[in-house]
Every structure is written in C-alpha cells, then in structure tokens.
Amino acid sequence: IFEDVVPAIRKWREAGMKVYIYSSGSIEAQKLLFGYSTEGDILELFDGHFDTKIGPKVESESYRRIAASIGCATNNILFLTDVPQEANAAEEADTHVAVVIRPGNAGLTDDEKSYYSLISSFTELFLPSST
C-alpha cells in the first residue's frame, strides 16, 4: 500500500464519502490483503468489496451493477485504475475515472496520457464532500 493511500481514504470517509474496492482478486483475497497490509488492518476503511463475480472489469455493465448494488448513480462514482481498458469501460458506464500512475504499472500510450485524468498520488484528488 502506497503511503498516500490510507490518509487519503481516511480524509474521504471523514467527509462522508464511501469507499469500495473492485479488484480482479477475489473478495476473500482482498480482505486478506487489507486485513494484513503494511499499514495494519485497514478493512474498516472500506464500505464493501467487489470482484469479477459482479462482472469483468473491462465491461461497462459491471460498473452499472456495482452502482445499483450500492444504491448510487454511476455519475456519482469515481473509479481509480491503472488499466486503460478498465477506465474505458467505467467511463462508458458514466462513472468518473482517474488513471493512477505508479511505479511498476504498465506504461500508457501518448493518446491515453492526453485523454485520461492522471494522478500519481491520492493526494492529487480533491473530492467534494458528500455531506
């Protein structure tokens, strides 16, 4: 877990936002990862977990299903990813998207770099309060 992640999520939750994980890893694997992270047990920071049982991350319908399951309009969701194909699918579902650039991630094409909102740290996100 990058050092900017936990403080940012705490700040978002204090502002009344909900935070969910959507991962290619199973929900059980997510809970192990976040239950025994380098930051300790951070499971309390998440309102829920989704895996590919909800649908593939490269299909827009998966994002619509997540929105329906959490009772939220897709245009009130921000999806963070490092995979342009996932970003494209989320955007097709009318969610907001930011592509996260981190060490070890696959590179982006020049077109992807110019098209997507890019961040290299969660501290670069300035989200409106939901309260």
Q: What is the rounded Rg?
A: 14 Å
- Count of individual beta strands: 5
Mean pLDDT value:
94
SSE pattern, N- to C-terminal: HEHEHEHEHE
Computed structural class: alpha/beta
Strand order of the largest sheet: 3-4-5
Alpha carbon gap, first and last residue? 28 Å
**C-alpha geometry:** globular
Unreliable segments of 5+ consecutive residues = none
Oligomerization state of this entry? single chain
Q: Can you summarize the main beta sheet?
A: 3 strands, parallel
Provide the β-strand percentage band: 5-15%
- The count of helical stretches stands at 5
Give the proportion of residues in helices: 25-40%
Write structural notes for this entry:
The chain is 34% helix and 13% strand. It is an alpha/beta fold and 131 residues long. It starts with a helix and ends in a 12-residue tail after the last strand. The mean pLDDT is 94.
Keywords:
alpha/beta; two-stranded parallel ribbon; 5 strands
Secondary structure: elements and pairs:
Elements: H1 5-14, E1 20-22, H2 27-35, E2 48-50, H3 60-70, E3 78-81, H4 84-92, E4 96-100, H5 110-115, E5 118-119
Parallel strand pairs: 1-2, 3-4, 4-5
